[in-house]
Amino acid sequence: MKLSVTRLFSADESGAAHVRTLAKLLVESVDLVTQMFGASPETGTELDAQLDNINAQASKSQATMLTALRSSYLTPLPREDLYLLGTWINRAIEAVSVTGTIIHATRQYRLPSRVGDVLEILTRQADLVLGATEQLTQADDLESTWMHLERLTHQAQRALATWRLADADELLARHYYRQQEVARSLESTFMTLREFSTQLGRILVRDS
Fold it and tell me: What sign does the dihedral 27-93-109-118 (CA atoms) show?
């Protein structure tokens, strides 16, 4: 049986597909942690369990992605790029899951309304990450997504700073400490997504 040249040298999409799967799991995890704000303790317990489940799925998907990349000859992007993109998404999911655990453990379900600004930015970033995984071979679209991610990263830092400064004036020490744990965990998520955005920038610069 003869194999066509196209088939022999067509890109293996399996690794990229796992990166997209991780991005979808990130969107789901951000949605769940957003639902925790205003939830009852009972609902919070259920949401925390769902976050743990997504985190486990993400770890499994990353391992499968690594196996797929190791066995691929030709991929849409260099295998190292796909690995790093998937790894940063997986770490972001871990950070979101930790945020959920902190919220549940400290019962911080009634955070101030200004936290809504932070969560809105995180939701938009998760959607952009998913969009980026579908634009890996479309340089112009990917550059636009990168620019939006970078802009939102700066907005996130300002929103977090506003939240923290307001809390310092308004809360008793015990409540301040607990809310700061949530804020630090969300900041860790944003910093991980910043690394994902930086990797996108490297790809764009190298391939331009």
Answer: negative
